[in-house]
Amino acid sequence: MPESLPERLLLGPGPSNAAPEVRAALAQPLIGHLDPAFLEVLDRVQRNLATLFRCRNGLTIPLSATGSAGMEACLVNLLEPGDVALIGVAGVFGSRMAEVARRCGARTVCVEVEMGQTIPPERMADAIRAERPSLVALVHAETSTGVAQPIAEVAREARSAGALMLADCVTSLSGMDVRLDDWGVDAAYSGTQKCLGCPPGLSPLALGPRAIERLNKRSRPVQSWYLDLGLIGDYFGQSRVYHHTAPVSMIFALDCALQRVLDEGLEARFERHREAHLRLVDGLEELGFEMLVPEGRRLPMLNTVVPPVPDEAALRRLLLDRHDIEVGGGLGSLAGRVWRIGLMGENARPEIVDRLLAALRQLL
Amino acid sequence: MPESLPERLLLGPGPSNAAPEVRAALAQPLIGHLDPAFLEVLDRVQRNLATLFRCRNGLTIPLSATGSAGMEACLVNLLEPGDVALIGVAGVFGSRMAEVARRCGARTVCVEVEMGQTIPPERMADAIRAERPSLVALVHAETSTGVAQPIAEVAREARSAGALMLADCVTSLSGMDVRLDDWGVDAAYSGTQKCLGCPPGLSPLALGPRAIERLNKRSRPVQSWYLDLGLIGDYFGQSRVYHHTAPVSMIFALDCALQRVLDEGLEARFERHREAHLRLVDGLEELGFEMLVPEGRRLPMLNTVVPPVPDEAALRRLLLDRHDIEVGGGLGSLAGRVWRIGLMGENARPEIVDRLLAALRQLL
């Protein structure tokens, strides 16, 4: 061990803290990525991801890279040059989707709202009628603003127009309801380091039957070999054919994290995130913080707040240096104006909220 | 912990076993990817990678995905559609490079030899003169055949023709000599799970000044956003601008693994790999195994051998089930004919070789 690192409470936009059990799973002795014992772990991880995404009869995999690679994997596999992609942009991660779609050679149309706003489903519906996209994409929990976006409503419109629906569930998965089959979402991706309470490094990804069909009917190879879900599916499917060396240790950790989620129960976990969020909002308002997002549109796991001080960065640094608590700064047009306080996975607990509030009380 | 996994000795083509210290580093409590304490770790990792690659004045980073993504990152950043890429193909990983280059839209020319052969530098030189490529690429240690390829000689030819030279060092880095600056190699990538003795999941990657210049002069955006080394360089460079969430735990492990490599010393480590290899060859020949590759062209860390039995897969399975030792099967046209025995990182030791030989003696 090189030196001792500080023990931080991670209340930013991710990573969140991982449970000791998850870290212990990470440190298990390695086994080979084609070892029958490892393939059992992988089977379980894939099954449990299907439960989390509520995606039956699809392909659910832990992609061997972070959440942003999950975004690119979905877009690069489901789009071909010249396709029309319609992207809802309500923050940094919506913009990123649009940028990735453009790099896939798609004609990319954005329905954009100011950061902090919800995209009205009617505007998406109008654009779907006008543009006839082959793919509609939206970020479920926009991590740059703390606003929930109307995935189910937009998915309904996309479906009825024959377009595929792609949802970014990086911040939402296992912290709030995500239902691919029920909502008609054809593809989704997440990250391990948010509400799953696992270190960053993998992107849980789900393709439903319509997305798989689109993939199989492509007219040209996917421009990325590493993210080619046809090739990757041969390893993560029945045949278990080598594509690249799976990140064995990270998959051990994800396996443990998923079992913890399912042991707790999804509904109980969502409720725990909601309760921690409400406790945080009460406490922060008492201290003079303002919530950026109006009630009813707030994400439980990611709270954007305006601190009651002129220099947000200085206070954030004090919180880190004196109390070992990390919160996030603003992104994009919100940089320097807001904090992003994450209560994700292990950290969505009253005692964690109270620790943050006590530290802030001392500093203010 | 879900259940107890078998303790395997990993003598396949990777992953190799990680030292307990490396696994302990992996399990350290998480800190944020923009935390000053983490950026110190990252600085050290990047510095130590520069030492390992022997690449001064370049960009050295731990790419947030496995070795195959390092391959794609180099090709996708250094090639533009219509460019000519000349690839030496002497096995599965050379073929993979060619496939990735084609997906980048490059006109891809291959100089091919049979699996098990060395590519003659003269043939590469002739092709360089005939095709005027902008990029020449070669696998240093071809993991599918166990043959060392003449990187330094080919790099000299590439340089003198004004082409960039790219080397796949997935299996070679820290197990045999790799010298980017001295050899005139402009870009290289590796994997963590081979001679570095770290779990799979990251791709150490190095760009020299000429590669960085090529990147800065591109006429169009890199087709991959996740692997865009311009954007990634903003996080791994001075400005530390957020691009994606770095896989913190894996970088802790790599940090520890790199320090172990440098504590041992590169020359001593290479010598340890050579000695273990010679001991293995002696022992295997005594048992009736035949080496696929003639002396002088063999890789020390990856030994392709023909087992003295009709059913190689059955013997391989017995080795795993009865002795908890994994060796690799053949890839491509060598499947079913050879074993690939890896002596990488922690496993390049006489006592490990002896354990394998004893197990084989019992089974044969």
Structure report:
2 copies of one chain form a homodimer. Chain A is built from 13 helices and 14 strands. With 364 residues, chain A is of the alpha/beta class. In chain A, helix 4 links the parallel strand 3 and strand 4. In chain A, helix 5 runs parallel beside helix 6. The longest helix of chain A is centred in the C-terminal third of the chain and has 21 residues. At the A-B interface, helix 1, helix 2, helix 3, helix 4 and helix 10 of A face helix 1, helix 2, helix 3, helix 4 and helix 10 of B.
Ends distance of chain A: 37 Å
Kindly report the greatest chain-chain contact and the residue count on each side: A-B, 73 and 73 residues
Number of contiguous helices of chain A: 13
Which value, in Å, is the CA radius of gyration of chain A? 20 Å
Helicity range of the residues of chain A? Answer: 40-55%
CATH superfamily of the largest domain in chain A: Type I PLP-dependent aspartate aminotransferase-like (Major domain)
CATH topology of the largest domain in chain A: Aspartate Aminotransferase, domain 2
Largest sheet of chain A: 7 strands, mixed
Shape, per Cα inertia axes of chain A: globular
CATH top-level class of the largest domain in chain A:
Alpha Beta
Low-confidence stretches of chain A: none
β content of chain A, as a range?
15-25%
Strand order of the largest sheet of chain A: 2-10-9-8-5-3-4
Structural class of chain A: alpha/beta
Quickly count the domains of chain A.
2
| The CATH architecture of the largest domain in chain A | 3-Layer(aba) Sandwich
- What is the number of beta strands of chain A? 14
